Fold this sequence. Notes:
The chain is of the alpha/beta class. It folds into two domains: about 180 residues, Glycogen Phosphorylase B (Rossmann fold, 3-Layer(aba) Sandwich); about 170 residues, Glycogen Phosphorylase B (Rossmann fold, 3-Layer(aba) Sandwich). The protein contains 13 helices and twelve strands. It has a six-stranded parallel sheet with strand order 3-2-1-4-5-6. Helix 9 packs across helix 13 and helix 11 crosses helix 12. The radius of gyration is 22 Å and the shape is globular. About 0% of the residues have low confidence.
Amino acid sequence: MGRWIVRKARAIQDAILGKVLPNATENPPERILIIRPYYLGDILLCLPVAQAIKRRWPHARIAWLLREEWTDLIHHHSMVDEAIPFSQKRMHSIRAPAEFFRVARELRKRSFDLVLNLSWDRSSALWAWASGAAVRIGIEEYGRPRLTSLLHTSTVVAPERSTDRRHMADFYYEPLRPLGFERRTDLPQIFPTDDEQRKVDARLASALGIQHVQELHPPPSILHPSFILVHPGARLQYREWPVERFVELIGELSKKTSHVIVLVCGPGEEPWASQLAEKAFTTLFWPAPSLGELMALTRRAVLFIGNESGPMHLAAAAGCRVVAIFGTDPARWGPLGSGHRVVADEKGLEQISVEKVLTVVLNGLINQ
Length: 368
């Protein structure tokens, strides 16, 4: 009943106001706000939206509203001019109204022409409305509309997840379609700063016993010994391949390749990741690297091995070949780009053996 009411309200709104869209050919928007507040992988998969906008409207200024812990990610993307952060902790405290109105004032000051809301939660629709932009395009969640979707001036209805096999990057691209954009062709692209790369290179050179590392993005082949980057964590526990299998995989790779293994983990994962490093006799354990450091590491690695996670998408976006371990269908969330390989089993991660992953990794190294 609730969905029917929302759809009827949307039809009435469209009949009274019409579908409010800019005449982008004659008067392209100059100030654009993208809303995708969270998570690392999702934000990365939304980057092609900014890339496509800058290619069509190079003089447009793009801002991105997101949680403060991810602002550094946007600072590394040349197509986005500004990150507008908000505190998630404050939004869940008694100070929530103060935080909301503080950010709303920041949005209003910028006089946005166009808002693209690439999220589908209630708060994101409120942010879009609070911006005061005349054109606010949002996504309706898999055919399950919410009343807050009426805060958008135009809504893109996405098909049900169970029947729609498109990649999530294509799903996030949908709000551009009413503006005349064709299908997505861009891949997410993100790079460390030269300073970040130099610092990581120096630490790698010291840890791996390398006498000299050429600066400014040399090919990975200059690193001797070269290394494989392994990230065994994930935001959601059901996406984590068993840790003991990572230990076994690292041991086999140490026997069958000349590559050093560099192990990384996310914040909060240090205790169990350090134990994994000890068991696997990892040459280099790099706990909780910053986003910039992780980008710089992936730029040097010959391969990234990890679960379905944000760091996996970051590695692909930074140009590293990926072997991703999936316990679900990777069609929607797999790494974007060429040269990547996915090891998957729809019955779950427990069904994926070390031998299966090892075979894919070794084939990937041979065919690089």
